[in-house]
Amino acid sequence: MRIRATVAAVSGALALSAFAIPGAHAADASAASRADVAKVQEAARAASGKTAFSTSSAADTGTPYTLDLSFSAVKVNNGKPIVAGIANKVTAPVTFNITHAADVDITADDFILDMEIYRGSYEEPDSILFGDDLPVCTATSTTAATCKGTIDVYPDTDLVNADATTWKAIGYAVALNGVDITADDVDWSKVGYVEQDALATTKLQRYSKLTVNASPEPVKKGKTITVTGKLSRANWETHKYAGYTGQSVQLQFRKKGSDTYTTVKTIKTDSTGNLKTTTTASVDGYFRYSFAGTATTPAVKATGDYVDVQ
């Protein structure tokens, strides 16, 4: 089970790793790395007075130095919204570039780098999402690299409906430089840390479904056709699909032999997401409903329902 980021005792970027530690579905190495990041962040922020507590030992000394590394060209899910249903895992690709000083060894076993997304404020994020595994970076020079990772979303454990909004990307890197940060006395001045906020934005949306049924079939020319359907979307709290109410949906028609749909009329879903309207039969063809989408819900089109007009 993945741990959601319900922020209470800690705040700011500290929470981005202190809470964002993957559970059973992630590799042990990744979990350990994220836990290490949390300790480094605690030390960095405690020294600057930005956090209300620290788990550092009284024997610990120094403050993590600012690692000479920066992120750029961050793209989440190829610039498209991340759309999640009610159960199936969704994996969104993340790509970015890094530049760093020549003495920063990004290939070291104890070098940790990640890209996460969060919603809410930087100081008190409401939720954080991240990848099951840490990104993989390929050096393009002695001071630059291209990196690929993922944001892995588990709707049945990660999400609530309020998560259908805009998220920000934040990147961080840690160079432990051989320092054992589990020891009783840690010299934090030998550990490097950097984080960069608001690198990109992405939307998280609730998967939508749309159905259509035109009847009677067949029908005589000039008679009335009744077209029904339903617009529904994922509810991340009940883990079911629920009707999307009060939404404008277009009834469209495509003549047999044509590839183009034209809009017949626009109607709204009722209190349970249902659609119902009538039109006059004229020629053979396909009826469908088309929903343009909203900020929280993607566009969707029903598969056309063929009507034989006699």
Would you write up a description of this structure?
This protein has two domains: 13-205, no CATH class; 208-307, Immunoglobulin-like, CATH 2.60.40.730. A hairpin with a 6-residue loop joins β15 (248-255) and β16. The longest helix has 20 residues, at 28-47. It is mainly β and 310 residues long. It is elongated and about 85 Å long. It has three helices and 20 strands. Residues 1-26 form the signal peptide.
Percent strand: 35-45%
Find the count of extended strands (DSSP E, 2+ residues): 20
Mean pLDDT: 88
Report the helical percentage. Answer: under 10%
Number of domains: 2
Distance between the termini: 57 Å
Write down the Rg: 26 Å
CA-based shape: elongated
Largest beta-sheet details: 7 strands, mixed
> Could you say which structural class the secondary elements and strand pairing correspond to?
mainly beta
What is the string of helix and strand elements? HHEEEEEEEEHEEEEEEEEEEEE
Count of helical regions: 3
- Unreliable runs: 1-29, 51-55
Keywords summarizing the entry:
disordered N terminus; 20 strands; 2 domains; mainly beta; Lipoprotein; elongated; Immunoglobulin-like; 310 residues
